[in-house]
Amino acid sequence: MSRTLLASACAGALLVPYSAFAASDPEIAELKAAMAEMRRDYEARIGALEKRLAQAERRAPNKDAAPAKAAAPVAAPAPSIATSPASAAAVAAGPVTDPVASPAVTAPAKAGAGAFNPAISLILEGTAAGYSRDRDGWRVPGFTLGGHAGLPPEGLSVGHTELVVSANVDDWFYGQATLAVHDDEEGTELELEEAFIDTLSLPAGLGLRLGRFFPQIGYLNTHHPHTWYFVDAPLPNQAFLGGQWYDDGARLSWVAPTDLFVEIGIEALRGGSYPVDGDTDSLVGGAQNAYAKIGGSVGAEHEWQAGVSYLWAEPRDRTSGHGHEHGGEGHGGESFAFSGDSPLFAADLVWKWAPDGNSTERHAVVQAEYFRRREDGDLTFLDDTGSALLPYEGTQQGFYVQGVYQFMPRWRAGLRYDRVWSDNALRVAVNESGEDDADLLDESGLLDDGHDPDRWSAMIDYSHSEYSRLRLQFTRDYTLPEADNQVFLQYVMSLGAHGAHKF
Amino acid sequence: MTRLLIALTLVLAAPFAQATVRVFTCEPEWEALARELGGDRVEVYAATTAQQDPHRIQARPSLIAQLRQADLLVCTGADLEAGWLPVLLRQARNPTVQPGQPGHFLAADSVRLLEVPTTLDRAEGDVHPQGNPHIQVDPRRIATVAAALGRRLAEIDAANAAVFGARTDDFLKRWRAAIARWERQAASLRGKRFVVQHAEWVYLFDWLGIQTAGAIEPKPGLPPAAGHLAALKAQLASRRADGIVRSPLGDPKAVEWLAAETGLPVIELPQTVGATADAGSLFALFDAILGRLSDGRR
Question: What is the interface pTM, i.e. ipTM, of the complex?
Answer without folding.
Answer: 0.82
